[in-house]
Amino acid sequence: MTEAETMSGPAAFVLNVVVLALFVLLFAALWRIFTKAGEAGWKSLVPIWNLIVILRIAGRPAWWAILLLVPLVNIVVLVVMYVGVAKAFGKGTGFGLGMAFLGFVFLPILAFGDAEYRGPLNRSGAGA
Fold first, then answer.
1. What pLDDT, in 10s, does the model give residues 33-59?
2. CA distances (Å), origin 51, targets 42, 81, 92
3. Which helix (H) or strand (E) holds 20?
4. Is the residue at 120 inside a domain?
């Protein structure tokens, strides 16, 4: 490999710092979303358990976490899950789609904005 094929030096350092900052921002946003929903913030840091808690916040059954392991099905489940989270916080379907596909933008908006947790919606659209 030539030096042009690998990133090294200052560029690699800057990229690593940006990625690390993005991870910290997303972890902080998830922590805040969990606390807004009445869950312990530390649960957002535990892999797999955090998905189960997000499903609970969205009003979906915990066994849906297994569906997140199935290719292509996981995309549908992820979208439905985040739309449910958005609606539980009084946001619309578009905001849920933004959370699913541009989470690094929409999760901090939900976390640090003025949205309040209203509980998961039941099938009629009313809060639980």
1. 999 999 999 999 999 999 999 999 999
2. 13, 9, 21
3. helix 10-36
4. no
